[in-house]
Amino acid sequence: xxxxxxxxxxxxxxxxxxxxxxxxxxxxxxxxxxxxxxxxxxxxxxxxxxxxxxxxxxxxxxxxxxxxxxxxxxxxxxxxxxxxxxxxxxxxxxxxxxxxxxxxxxxxxxxxxxx
Amino acid sequence: xxxxxxxxxxxxxxxxxxxxxxxxxxxxxxxxxxxxxxxxxxxxxxxxxxxxxxxxxxxxxxxxxxxxxxxxxxxxxxxxxxxxxxxxxxxxxxxxxxxxxxxxxxxxxxxxxxxxxxxxxxxxxxxxxxxxxxxxxxxxxxxxxxxxxxxxxxxxxxxxxxxxxxxxxxxxxxxxxxxxxxxxxxxxxxxxxxxxxxxxxxxxxxxxxxxxxxxxxxxxxxxxxxxxxxxxxxxxxxxxxxxxxxxxxxxxxxxxxxxxxxxxxxxxxxxxxxxxxxxxxxxxxxxxxxxxxxxxxxxxxxxxxxxxxxxxxxxxxxxxxxxxxxxxxxxxxxxxxxxxxxxxxxxxxxxxxxxxxxxxxxxxxxxxxxxxxxxxxxxxxxxxxxxxxxxxxxxxxxxxxxxxxxxxxxxxxxxxxxxxxxxxxxxxxxxxxxxxxxxxxxxxxxxxxxxxxxxxxxxxxxxxxxxxxxxxxxxxxxxxxxxxxxxxxxxxxxxxxxxxxxxxxxxxxxxxxxxxxxxxxxxxxxxxxxxxxxxxxxxxxxxxxxxxxxxxxxxxxxxxxxxxxxxxxxxxxxxxxxxxxxxxxxxx
Lengths: 115, 588
Hints:
heterodimer, B: 21 strands
């Protein structure tokens, strides 16, 4: 997978423009939140709470779209759908996918900030 | 809050509720850079609280939030906003139609999907701002028109009171009168008047102006003034109709006129003089169950110029207990649920339905009411029912006495002479009565004075100037010959004169005074002997001067017998409003 697909550079340029000086704060906030979401979704899966699982995934999906991380958003969407269908049988794989993608996005974003 | 959050012209206060901090930051940045003031909440509950606290003009809500979701928050915010238009835009990455529909159902106005786009957000906000402004101006218009409507109703109420003050002098409360009229009927152009005449009997007036509302009501005020004013001053029905027509023709705009019927009800002789111009048929309800129609024979008032106007009345004899019924066209035009009109045929059915003449009014009223039940046209209906009654009936009618200002003339004299053809054309009695009525307190005796002045003037004109022998009036046949002779001679009159002198002296101690009435004619005069004969006469001819003798302290011949002097002494009772006392002479 190319960088292009993990991050939507057009969206990020737009964001940088909108946020100005606060762009880095925004990215850091997103990354901190993302860790928190990951913790929450893992907790929901352990508790077999499909509703929470769905909500956290949904929320995570939203902020991922906004920050310009389409693949991460897709991973969250898959989890959200599973939560909606109350089928947590693949939650471990879904969480793993999110975690993996977040790691990539996180790394690329940090790089992007330094550019 | 940052930079251009000042309340510039395009600046709004916008509430953002989203549980994602990074999403909030992005929205906050976009909106503040576009000049808006931003209030933030992290869940539905905070959003509702912030809405109450900050009173934002627009709300951006995430649909899924902890504690209280966006749907519930939207519901509460819309409820709290009441009449205000507070647009709610859902921030959503929801894509299924059901979820979107539920956002709209709770009052959401639009969606904004992620990723947030500055241009789209600006366009949406601008669109909603225009909608808000439109909504506000509509509300302002609505409130304004509501206030104007209130004001108009208030003014109508005031106008009605003013009108009632002019028109309340009537005798609509007399025992022989029944009527149906909405309190606000004047604003449908309907008018209903009744007034006792100084000479006994009463005048009645029913009319219906064309149109509705103020234009229809505006003619009613001068109408009332003329009707009540002239009736109180003793003018005849024809004089009042002519003056009304003249006045209305002068003041009403083109296309507005007054369908009217007027009745002079003479209780003494048992006659009704009826003039109908444009009102639906009236009806005389006879004891034997038969009915006479009182058809419209004239154009409505306010159309014809004075020289083409006819005040000719139809004369109908009526027995005591027979009824006269008049109604505005609102009765015939009453509509039922099917859109049918009540129509004249239904009126005739009610009249033909049997029963006494006195029952017809109530039955007609009931029939119209049940016919148009629930349709709500009752305001347009005016019905007048008047029965011929005994003369004594009017004694029970409290005459409306205008409060005296006390400023009228007390000590004065005047003389007034009518000459030549004017004698045939002009009746001076209303004018002279009007002058007498200016004396504070004397208005209580308008009926007596009317009789005295009329009889003295007629005596001078008929016997003095026209030289009609009173002996003619001894038989009913002679009586009518007398009047046709009178008409003939009046038509030929070229010379002659009648002069009337009035002299009033006040008697402050007794709150009254003395009015000396001297009427002199250009005739040859007649002897003292003839006068006493005339006064003693029990026949038809003597009645006039005998009445004068009955009302006056002192009646004597002077000059060469072509002059009669009558002295009317009066004073008002201490407290009673009605019971003034005149010191009449001998009872006949």
